[in-house]
Amino acid sequence: MSGVTPKSGGPVAAERIADLAAASRILAAQGVVDGFGHVSMRHPSAPDRYFMARSVAPALVTPEDIIEYDLDSSPCNAGGRSSFLERFIHGEIYKARSDIMSVVHSHSPSVIPFGLVAVPMRAMFHNAAFLAEGVPTFDISEKFGPTDMLVSDGAKGVALAGVMGTRDLALMRGHGSVACGPTLQTAVFRAVYTEVNARIQHWTLALAGGKAVAALDKEEGKLADVINRTAGMRAWDLWRAQVRSQVNW
């Protein structure tokens, strides 16, 4: 970051910005984020820019809170608004993955244990099908030693994106997770159902008592994920309508 304010990627429809603000509130309502966590959206016509709210609790985000960033995570239009320390998660994933259009970072409680143990997170049901591809864990200490656990600069963001690779979810040891998608709606859907899947896996492992679990395999996951990318809009439409009933934007 040079200290020079980067130029905007250009105007974006107000409805898209409103959807991004709504996504923050949806994630809070669904128990994925609380006072912490954030969701971003790549600029639809300028792939080297992305949008994310100022540093505020997700349930309080409004369209006026949305800031545009370049991929180094320097703000284009902060106007005195503060930025999330971990915005580098988003910028570096967008740099590494041209197919990703939205990123969600959360500390959803049922997910965190899977980043602390050798038990892999698996796709327990069709709504979490994308997990069948595999879920890597980013351990910040492996490259950076003892830290405050935050991805607070570009180098740490690069390391996280490298561990995630071609998958669309990565766990973060002792911290949380990152869920991504080719649309804002898909990323939100995946973040929500990753938390649901984690709860189901906890229950399933308790029932199994050490016996085999019939989770989705990779081929089943690929087939089901194709359906989820369109059918998942049903959930988005419901969640978005619920937010609309609470706000005037």
* Beta-strand percent range: 5-15%
Strand order of the largest sheet: 3-2-1-4-7-6-5
Shape: globular
Count of helical stretches: 7
Average of per-residue pLDDT values: 97
CATH C-level class: Alpha Beta
Number of strands: 7
Helix content: 25-40%
Low-confidence stretches: none
Structural class: alpha+beta
Outline the structure in words.
This protein is α+β, with helices and mostly antiparallel strands and 249 residues long. The chain has a single domain (14-237), classed as L-fuculose-1-phosphate Aldolase. Helix content is 37%, strand content 13%. The protein is built from 7 helices and 7 strands. Helix 1 (14-29) packs parallel to helix 5 (184-208) and helix 1 (14-29) crosses helix 7 (233-244).
Q: Could you write a compact summary of the structure shown?
A:
The protein has helices spanning 14-29, 88-96, 141-144, 154-164, 184-208, 218-231, 233-244; strands spanning 38-42, 49-53, 66-70, 102-106, 137-138, 169-172, 176-181. By secondary structure, the chain is of the alpha+beta class. The mean pLDDT is 97.
